[in-house]
Amino acid sequence: MLAQQGILTEADGDCVAVERPHGKGSFFIICEHASRRLPELFGDLGLTSEALSSHIAWDPGALSVARHISANLDSTLVYQRFSRLIYDCNRPPESPAAMPETSEIYAIPGNRDLKDTERRERTEALYLPFHDRIRALLADRSARGQATMIVTIHSFTPVYLGKSRAVELGILHDEDSRMADRMLSAAAKAPVYRTERNEPYGPKDGVTHTLKLHGIANGLHNVMIEVRNDLIVDEVSQRVMADYLSGLIQQSLDA
Fold it and tell me: Which of 35, 175, 198, 232 could bond to 202 as cystine, CB 3.0-4.6 Å?
């Protein structure tokens, strides 16, 4: 099937990875921007190694934080194995941001003037299998009567378009703010990091696609967490952040 899609080879492997599929925890962790890896068919998309290692290609540190949270809370983790430059799985197929021609200061030559067939191939190879796997896992949990609260993990750069960002943690939500409200309340009681609602992005920026698709559509409590990436640069800082976030997430359930 992968070869027929024309995007992923057998060497590339599957686009989606699942860890702790039978985790007993109530939380379901998703990391859409876990990897900077490109399928071998695409080479470097015409980008420098500096660009491909930067935040435009992935969310640095997010996967490690997500993995530690998954372990702390015995919760299933699903993540995308390829760069958002090929397809951003937190965007619907009709969004220009799903396969961006530019990102911050970088033009992306390999994404310029994509044909409808090329966009469809990427959607079928990366977006659909990723979200279909999530749907299947959620359906299985529902059939078993397992409670589910969706948590997506992201990171953001401390400087964007030349502007510094003071916020350190963002707790994001769309129309369903139940889980975000409880986490923000818990964070205010132990203000270790500067934490803000719907910052540095929010629903108006189109970043709540996964929450709407799997959380709101199914009536599940859901939240998106954004961590400033200079706070999670190594294993120690990633574990510290994961432990703090695990506490906030658990308090949202206990509340």
Answer: 198
What global pTM score does this model have? 0.96
Instruction: For residue 47, give every residue at least 6 positions away whose Cβ sits within 8 Å of its Cβ, in sequence order, or none.
Output: 85, 106, 108, 109, 110
Name the pairing type of β-strands 149-156 and 195-197: unpaired
Query: Exposed, middle or buried by CB within 10 Å (0-12, 13-18, 19+), for 97?
Result: middle
* Listed residue (144, 23, 8, 33) closest to 85, CA to CA: 33
Backbone angles phi, psi at 211, to 5 degrees: -60, -45
Residues 6 or more apart in contact with residue 206 via CB below 8 angstroms: 91, 95, 97
Query: Quick one: angle between helices 178-189 and 235-254, nearest 10?
Result: 120
Which tokens belong to 23? 């985790």
Question: Class for domain 2-254, per CATH?
Answer: alpha beta
Instruction: Give CA–CA dist 200/55, Å, rounded.
Output: 14
CA-based nearest residue to 18, from 64, 61, 77: 77
pLDDT, one tens digit per residue, over 233-250 is: 999 999 999 999 999 999
Q: Where exactly are the structural domains of the chain?
A: 2-254
Residues 140-175 have pLDDT tens digits of 999 999 999 999 999 999 998 889 999 999 999 999
Residues 45, 110: contact at Cβ < 8 Å? yes
d(CA 243, CA 72): 7
